[in-house]
Automatic annotation (TrEMBL):
Keywords: Transferase
Residue ranges annotated for the Gamma-glutamylcyclotransferase AIG2-like domain, each copy included: 14-135
Pfam family, one: GGACT
Top-level taxon in the UniProt lineage: Bacteria
Record's protein name: Gamma-glutamylcyclotransferase
Signal peptide: none
Native source organism of the sequence: Alteriqipengyuania lutimaris
A Gene Ontology molecular function term of the record: transferase activity
Amino acid sequence: MGADAAAPHTDPLVFLYGILQQGEEGYRELDLAKSLQLVGPDDVRGVLYDLGDYPGYKTGGTGRGTGHVRGQLHAVKRLSVLPQLDAYELYDPADPTNSDYLRKRVTTLSGREAWIYEYNRDVGDAPIIASGSWKERRASGN
C-alpha cells in the first residue's frame, strides 16, 4: 500500500436518510455531532416513503416502487449513540415486533456495511419519494 492510500474504515457506520441527517432537526436535537462523523453522501437500494413529518425506508419495495434512497453515511465515534438513535426511532431490540423502526445492516451502493433504520409498519398509501431524497423532498415543499 502506497503512502497516499486511504486507511481502511474501522468505525461502525450508520446510514441516515431522514430527519437525523446532518443539517436536519433530529441531528441538532440529539446533538449527533458529538457522536457521529460525516463520511459523505451514499445511496442504498430500497424505497423511501413520505410519512408526513419524516420518511420511512423499506428494502426492496412493495410493488409500488423500487429504487434507491439517498442519504448520508456517518462513522459512529461513540457507541453510546446507538441506544440513543434506537430510542429516537422507537426501536426496542427486546421487542422488534412492536417497534416502529428496526435497526438493520445494509450494504450501501459504494459497498460499505452500515446500520440503517427500516420502517417496521405498513406504509399504506403513503406516497413514494421518487427522488429517493428526503432533503430534496423537503426543499421542494412537495
